[in-house]
UniProtKB/TrEMBL annotation, chain A:
Tagged with keyword ATP-binding: yes
Entry's Gene Ontology BP terms: transmembrane transport
Organism, scientific name: Streptomyces scopuliridis RB72
Ranges in a coiled coil: none
Record protein name field: ABC transporter
Family: Belongs to the ABC transporter superfamily.
Keywords: ATP-binding, Nucleotide-binding, Transport
InterPro entries from the UniProt entry: AAA+_ATPase, ABC_transp_ATP-bind, ABC_transporter-like_ATP-bd, P-loop_NTPase
Lineage per the UniProt record: Bacteria, Bacillati, Actinomycetota, Actinomycetes, Kitasatosporales
Automatic annotation (TrEMBL), chain B:
NCBIfam families (UniProt xref): oligo_HPY
Domain of life of the native organism: Bacteria
Protein name: ABC transporter ATP-binding protein
Organism of this sequence: Streptomyces scopuliridis RB72
Hydrolase found in the keyword field: no
Organism lineage: Bacteria, Bacillati, Actinomycetota, Actinomycetes, Kitasatosporales
Family: Belongs to the ABC transporter superfamily.
Length: 220, 366
C-alpha cells in the first residue's frame, strides 16, 4: 500500500499549500487525482514520491513509514517509486545523452551490470531507437524527451509510479502512447499508479478510480 | 518554387457564418493573409538541410480562425516564425505569404520591424510568463507598446493601455502588478492585451494553451475567438485538438512540414471526420475517442523518406506512397478515407456537388 495520511505541506510554515490531505493506493491499482492548477496537487505528488517533506502527516510505503525525504530517504524506499514530471526539459540533465539519461538511476544505485540490455529494451518499449538515444535533450522534441523520462522512471522497476501532469505538454498521439507504456508496465509488474492532472477526460479513461482534490483534503 | 498565385478573387454572395464546406468555397472577401508554396529550409553544418516547412498554402480571412494542428516538431512554430520574419540566419524561404500587400517572406527587417510586427501581426505567445518583462508592471509594458506603435505621448498611452487591457478582459485593478504576481490566466490576458494594441488584422497564437488546465484553456480559446469575431483573422497554432475544436472554422493538419489536410472544422471534428489517415490517427488518440496512439514516431525533418512522409506509420500505405501525393481538394494523400467509408447515409449527389468547388480551389492553388 501507498498511504498518505493527513498530509499538510507547503513552502512556508504559515501558509501550507496542502492541508490535511489523505489518500490510499492499493498495489496494482491506479488513482487519478484531479485538481485545477495551483491547488497543490503537484506538491502532494512530490510528498508521495518522497521528494518533499510534509510539515505534518505520514507517508507509508509498503507498510513502512517514511522518515526521510529526498536523498535522506532510504534507498529501498526511494527506488520503489518512479516519478515522471510535467516538463521534460526541466527534469532532464541537458548534458546527458538520452541513453545516459535513462541509465542514470542504474548508475546511481550501482547496478551498472544491468545497463546495456535493460536500457535498450526499455528504450524500445517507449519508442526510442538507435540514433535518437545518442542525442542530447536540446536535439529532441518534448515528446521524445518525455519518452526518455518515462523510461528513466521505469528503469529500476518501481512498485509505484507517480505521474505529475505527465502529458500536459504533449500532443494527443504521444499522450496515448505514453499512457499505453505505463499501463503495459503496470500489467507486467503489478505496479500501483498515482496520476495527477487537470484533464478529467484523460484521467477517467486512464485510471481505475479518480478523485477530486476537494474530496481528499481537509477543505472538502 | 512556385510563383505566387494572386489572392482568391471576390466572387459570389456573402457566405453565411456556418455553411457547408466554407473552406472549399471561393471566398467573398479577399483574404487577410494569403500563403502560397511556403517553404522553410535550415542550412546545417556539413551542407545538410532540414526541410521544416514544405509547400504550405492557405488563405485566412477576417473574422476567421484557422487551426494549424500536428505533433510537436512538425514545423508549426517554424511557419509562425516565418510569418513574423523571425527565422534564424541559416533559414532559406521559398514561396510567398502576402498580408496587406506585403510579402512577409521577402520584406526586409526594417519593413517588418516598423510596419508588420505588432501592427499587422499580433503575436499571442506560448508562454506569457516568459513573454512579459519580469521587472516591469503590466501597465508599463502596455504603455510602452502604445508609445512605440502609435508614437503618441502624454496621457494618450495611459488611456490606450487601459482600453487594451479592457479589450483583453484584463482587470484594471491588476495593471500595476508585475508578471510574477499574476496567475497563469491573467498573464495570458496581459500578453493578449499587448498583441491587441496595434489593432493588427492578423492574430498569431502559437500554442496559447499549452500547460493550462481545461477551464483556462476554454477561457483563453473563447477570448481568442471573440477577437476573431471582432474582425481579425486568427491563426491558432496548437497541438490541443480540444481547443481547436472549440473555436476553429477550419483545420489544417501538418505532418513533417507539409499541410496534409485542410478542411472545415465541423467536418473534421464531426461525423464525417478528416480524410487523411494521419488526421484520423490524431483524433483517434484522444482519450474521449479510441485513445490509441499512432504507431512509431514522426520522421526527422532532416531525413524525410521519399514520397509521403507518413507512409511508414500509415495502415493504408502501398507502393504508390513512395511518390509524394499532390495537395489537391484540401488533401495530400494517395489513399484517403472517403467519408462514404464511415457514413453510408451520405448521398453521392452531395459529394458530387462539392467537387466543382474543390477543383475551383485547386486551380487557385496550382
Amino acid at each position: 500500500m501507498l498511504e498518505l495520511r493527513s498530509i499538510t505541506a507547503g513552502y512556508e510554515r504559515r501558509a501550507p499549500v496542502v492541508r490535511d490531505a489523505s489518500l490510499t493506493l492499493a498495489p496494482g491499482t491506479s488513482l487519478g487525482l484531479l485538481g485545477p492548477s495551483g491547488c497543490g496537487k503537484s506538491t502532494l505528488a512530490r510528498v508521495a514520491a518522497l521528494l518533499h517533506r510534509p510539515d505534518a502527516g505520514t507517508v507509508t510505503v509498503d507498510g513502512q513509514r517514511a522518515t526521510g525525504w529526498r536523498h535522506r530517504a532510504p534507498r529501498a524506499q526511494r527506488t520503489a517509486i518512479g516519478v515522471v514530471f510535467q516538463q521534460p526539459r526541466l527534469s532532464a540533465d541537458p548534458r546527458l545523452r538520452l541513453s545516459e539519461l535513462i541509465a542514470e538511476p542504474l548508475r546511481a544505485t550501482g547496478r551498472r551490470s544491468d545497463l546495456t540490455a535493460h536500457v535498450g529494451e526499455l528504450a524500445r518499449t517507449v519508442g526510442l531507437t538507435g540514433e535518437l538515444l545518442g542525442r542530447r535533450p536540446h536535439e529532441v522534441s518534448d515528446g521524445q524527451l518525455q519518452r526518455a523520462c518515462l523510461a528513466r522512471a521505469l528503469v529500476l522497476r518501481p512498485r509505484w509510479l507517480v505521474c505529475d501532469e505527465m502529458t500536459a505538454m504533449l500532443d494527443a498521439s504521444t499522450t496515448a502512447a505514453l499512457v499505453a507504456v505505463v499501463e503495459e508496465y503496470r500489467r507486467e509488474h503489478g505496479a500501483g499508479l498515482l496520476a495527477v492532472g487537470h484533464d478529467r477526460v484523460l484521467l477517467e479513461r486512464w485510471c481505475d478510480r479518480t478523485v477530486r482534490w476537494t474530496e481528499i483534503t481537509g477543505a472538502g | 518554387m512556385t510563383t505566387p498565385a494572386p489572392p482568391v478573387p471576390p466572387t459570389g454572395p456573402v457566405e453565411p457564418v456556418v455553411s457547408v464546406e466554407p473552406a472549399l468555397l471561393a471566398r467573398s472577401v479577399p483574404p487577410v493573409l494569403s500563403v502560397r508554396g511556403l517553404g522553410v529550409r535550415f542550412r546545417m553544418r556539413g551542407g545538410r538541410h532540414i526541410a521544416a516547412v514544405t509547400d504550405a498554402g492557405f488563405d485566412l480571412a477576417a473574422g476567421e480562425c484557422l487551426a494549424l494542428v500536428g505533433e510537436s516538431g512538425c514545423g508549426k512554430s517554424v511557419l509562425a516564425s516565418a510569418l513574423l520574419g523571425l527565422l534564424p540566419g541559416n533559414a532559406q524561404t521559398t514561396g510567398s505569404a502576402v498580408l496587406d500587400g506585403i510579402d512577409l517572406l521577402a520584406a526586409d527587417e526594417r519593413t517588418l520591424a516598423r510596419t508588420v510586427r505588432g501592427r499587422r501581426v499580433g503575436l499571442v505567445p506560448q508562454s506569457p510568463a516568459a513573454h512579459l518583462t519580469p521587472v516591469r508592471t503590466v501597465r508599463a509594458q502596455l504603455e510602452e507598446t502604445v508609445r512605440e506603435l502609435t508614437g503618441t505621448r502624454g496621457r494618450e498611452p495611459h488611456r490606450a493601455a487601459e482600453a487594451a487591457a479592457d479589450r483583453a478582459a484584463f482587470p484594471a485593478g491588476h495593471l500595476d502588478r508585475y508578471p510574477h504576481e499574476l496567475s497563469g490566466g491573467l498573464a495570458q490576458r496581459a500578453a493578449t492585451a499587448l498583441a491587441l494594441i496595434g489593432d493588427a488584422p492578423l492574430l498569431l497564437a502559437d500554442e496559447p494553451t499549452t500547460g493550462l488546465d481545461r477551464d483556462l484553456v476554454d477561457r483563453t480559446a473563447d477570448e481568442l475567438r471573440r477577437h476573431a469575431d471582432e474582425g481579425r483573422a486568427l491563426l491558432l497554432i496548437t497541438h490541443d485538438l480540444a481547443a481547436a475544436e472549440r473555436i476553429a472554422d477550419r483545420v489544417a493538419v501538418m505532418y513533417a512540414g507539409r499541410i496534409v489536410e485542410l478542411t472545415d472544422a465541423q467536418r473534421f471534428f464531426g461525423e464525417r471526420g478528416p480524410r487523411h489517415p494521419y488526421a484520423r490517427g490524431l483524433l483517434d488518440a484522444l482519450p474521449e475517442r479510441a485513445f490509441t496512439p499512432i504507431p512509431g514516431l514522426p520522421p526527422e525533418l532532416g531525413e524525410l523518406p521519399a514520397g509521403c512522409a507518413f507512409a511508414p506509420r500509415c495502415p493504408r500505405a502501398t507502393d504508390l506512397c513512395a511518390t509524394t501525393p499532390p495537395f489537391t481538394d484540401g488533401l495530400a494523400c494517395h489513399h484517403p478515407r472517403e467519408s462514404t467509408d464511415e457514413s453510408p447515409e451520405e448521398s453521392p449527389e452531395e459529394r458530387s456537388d462539392e467537387r466543382p468547388d474543390e477543383s475551383a480551389e485547386e486551380t487557385v492553388r496550382a
